[in-house]
Amino acid sequence: MAVMEPRGREVDQLDAVVPLAGDTPVSRTSRPVFTTGRHVGPGSAEPDSLMRRYQRQALAGDFLASLAAGGLAAVARFGAPGAAYLVLTLSLPLLWVTIIAAQRGYERRFLGTGPEEYRRILQAGLVMFCVIAVVSYALRSEVARGYVFLAIPATLLLTLLSRRRLRTWIYRLRERGLALQRVLVVGRADVVVSVIEKLDREPQHGLVPVGACVPFVGVEVSHVHDVPVVGDPGRVLEAVADTGAHVVAVVSHPDLSGQALRRLSWALEERGVELIVSPGIIEVAGPRLSIRPVAGLSLLHLERPVASGGRMLGKMVFDRVGGILLTAAAAPVLLAVALGVRLTSRGPVFYRQVRVGAGGREFTMFKFRSMVVDADHRRAALMAISDGNGVLFKLRKDPRVTRFGGVLRRFSLDELPQLLNVVRGDMSLVGPRPPLPEEVAGYTADAARRLKVKPGLTGLWQVSGRSDLNWEESLRLDLRYTDNWSIALDVSILWRTLRAVVKGSGAY
């Protein structure tokens, strides 16, 4: 939890020892030194210039992606396209970047982090399809459907790949401590610690805490979770000057609300410093949040998680169709693995186990058998040496795993038969980890919320460390998915799963 130390230490004993300048990296253990009345630290040029470069490259990449997609579609559809389709192909990139801009796809707050950048690209693709259809109808000049159905998906795909390349570039810079915005966190110490922990845990968002303003109750402190305390919430502007902060994050402080927060926003605006306010709501995706202005107040509206209706029907169709297609595509692998299990150890090819699905309903889950036949009976004797996370039983070197089973587990091939559970409707392609009945029996009220959606063949737990996660982290990821699932998130997780399986990280 919080590391709150007495303020009596000298400045040269603080964790931050070297101020940043120019391209000097920012890191968790390299914070600016603070002394009263002295400004130490660089200006804001570096992250600003790099993000402007990101914007320019994003626009250029989108333009070239549409130009390439239109050219490929024209050649594939017509071989030698006529003048009309040549003009259309050259016009598509301008239309594409204009639509993305109208969807606010080049705003810096959406670039380089989170799913919103990709979501706006997908929305732009739908808008472009509609625009072409409407213009074609209005001009009574029907555009060849083959051209449209090639050009738009190819534009989307190439654009997403281009943005992914940019993400990789900016992530690598941030891992080196570059392109980071310095953040001053203001609020109660316990909440400030929580925010700092999250920002330090996920540096890809480009925010690094460099100072904290917390109220002093009884005893002053010098550090909060390894971040220097540079004052109380009453001296935010002085702390901004001391730290060279690009962003002020206000979290749960009653004295910084209403008119006081408004005045602070004006003062920060004059200094070119961003203001972000945490409402105290955790693990809620952006699409579920909206601002509802009422009587001059900006009220934060929180949409309820989707548990029924059209979107849930869409997920069911996505799961069933995707399950059938993946089963058909994986049929040769399924047959090869089944033959390998049969030839390398005695016992059945499949391992059947009762798991708990949505609403607490039990079902039989299928896996390729990767252990000896009497593995369940030998589990009790191994409980004392479990490498699990306190709730789940796991062993890094489980003596019950067969040699061939070890290979299957390394690449998650033993889980492929769960595609049959997806096709049957017991599971989803993406969802929380399917729990055992004895695990569910010990669930708290929070953990029981995992059962509001179907368990998944993969999920956030699969792409975030798998067996290396502790129980609290696994539960947090499952609850995040339960409350914020979407088809776009499912597609993203499926793509990340492929990479996690190839690397074999956290699998044993």
Describe, in plain words, how this protein is organized in 3D.
It contains 16 helices and 13 strands. The relative contact order is 0.08. It folds into 3 domains: 4-26 and 180-280, Rossmann fold (3-Layer(aba) Sandwich), CATH 3.40.50; 47-175, no CATH class; 310-503, no CATH class. Helices cover 46% and strands 13% of the residues. Mean pLDDT is 79; it is low at 1-45. The two termini are 30 Å apart. With 508 residues, the protein is an alpha/beta fold. The longest helix has 34 residues, at 45-78. The chain has helices spanning 45-78, 83-102, 116-138, 145-175, 189-201, 236-243, 258-270, 310-329, 331-344, 375-378, 403-410, 418-424, 437-441, 445-448, 471-484, 487-503; strands at residues 4-6, 181-187, 207-213, 221-224, 227-231, 247-251, 274-278, 289-294, 297-302, 350-356, 362-368, 428-430, 456-458. The strands form 4 sheets. Strands 1-4-5-3-2-6-7 form a 7-stranded mixed sheet. Strands 8-9 form a two-stranded antiparallel ribbon. Residues 27-47 are annotated as: Disordered. It is a multi-pass membrane protein. It is found in: Membrane. Pfam families: Bac_transf, CoA_binding_3. Belongs to the bacterial sugar transferase family.
